[in-house]
Amino acid sequence: MPEVAPARAAASTPLPARELVTPQPTRVGLVGVATMAGSGLSNQLGAAIGSLAFPVIGPVGVVAVRQYVAAVVLFAVGRPRLREFTWRQWWPVLLLAVVFGTMNLSLYTAIDRVGLGLAVTLEFLGPLSIALAATRRRVDACCALIAVAGVVTLMRPRPSADYLGMGLGLLAAACWASYILLNRTVGRRVPGAQGPAAAAGVSALMFLPVGIVVAVRHPPTLTAAACAVAAGVLSSAVPYLADLFTLRRVPAPAFGLFMSVNPVLAAVVGWIGLGQRLGWAEWMGIGAVVAANALSILTSRD
Fold it and tell me: Looking at residue 25, what is its pLDDT?
């Protein structure tokens, strides 16, 4: 698998520059597996809990709170020296902030319209597309075909299809792919985790007036506010810190392979926690996308 940030569903907080993940580990231990499982489950539970606040403050309000939480966590870890940034460093950081906010907003709106499992699976196509496009192996061409077949199955024409919701899921995928490319540039130009931290801070500032408008027009209840904060903690803070720990102890291919099951986790959490049942065709589509990513990683020569 090419050097791409491993896929992690539900638009998690950006990972820091790759130089923080050294030396490269060579085996997967029980602690690493437990941490990866906890990170993935936390991510999907956060998205599910956040969706409970949609009737009160909408996806926009939940995303605004999540951006605030992500900024606090990343600033605490990255400690960016903003006054020392040059324009060459600032412009990719600003673009990353826009992409980060758009990614989460489109994903959470898609979750509101088409459900957690389908939305997360469509978003997962972003990093998968980047990985497959970067290679010329025949097996990756087969993986691309499998993924396309899965998407066609998920988006097949039917009376109940919400094409706007699915389109927003694909927009989230495009944003995640853009995030990967931008984060490479930020990682080369800004030391440590300062770049993602600055991007998260800018994104939070962008959502500050949005959050104020939402709070004025739709005053949040205590329960809705708690759900939104929980979404930020479980889908931003916990996965970010867990992945910092994991990527120092687990080989990147193993990390990517384990994270590829996140669409399945999302579907299960949506089914059990939110009552979002999927038909056999949806499960087949999700399985095809997951299988494409897993096959690409397992057959990688890296």
Answer: 54
CA distance 250 to 24: 8
For the segment 71-102, what is each residue's pLDDT rounded down to a tens digit?
998 888 888 998 999 999 999 999 999 999 99
CA distances from 211 to 68, 71, 93 (A): 10, 14, 22
**Plot region of 294 (φ>0 → left; ψ -120 to 50 → alpha; else → beta):** alpha
Q: Which amino acid is at 76?
A: A
The two three-digit tokens of residue 287, written as one number = 């399985």
Looking at the chain, the whole-number percentage of residues with pLDDT higher than 90 is 40
**What distances in angstroms separate CA 214 from CA 56, 105, 234, one per listed residue?**
10, 14, 22
pLDDT-derived band of residue 213, with 50, 70 and 90 as boundaries? very high
For tokens 């996965």, the residue is 239
CA distance 94 to 28: 36
The contacts of residue 54 (CB under 8 Å, 6+ apart) are 62, 112
Q: Is the pLDDT of residue 9 over 80?
A: no
Residue 187, token pair as written in the block: 């990682």
Q: What are phi and psi of 39, to 5 degrees?
A: -65, -50
Q: Whole-prediction pTM value?
A: 0.83
Buried b (16+ CB within 10 A) or exposed e, 221-250: eeebbebbbbbbbbbbbbbbebbeebbebb
The whole-angstrom separation of Cα 60 and Cα 111 is 12
Q: What sign does the dihedral 95-100-101-107 (CA atoms) show?
A: positive
Residue from 204, 163, 196 nearest 180 by CA = 196
- In 3-state terms, what secondary structure has residue 278? coil
The whole-angstrom separation of Cα 41 and Cα 242 is 11
Give the whole-angstrom CA distance, residue 73 versus residue 253. 26
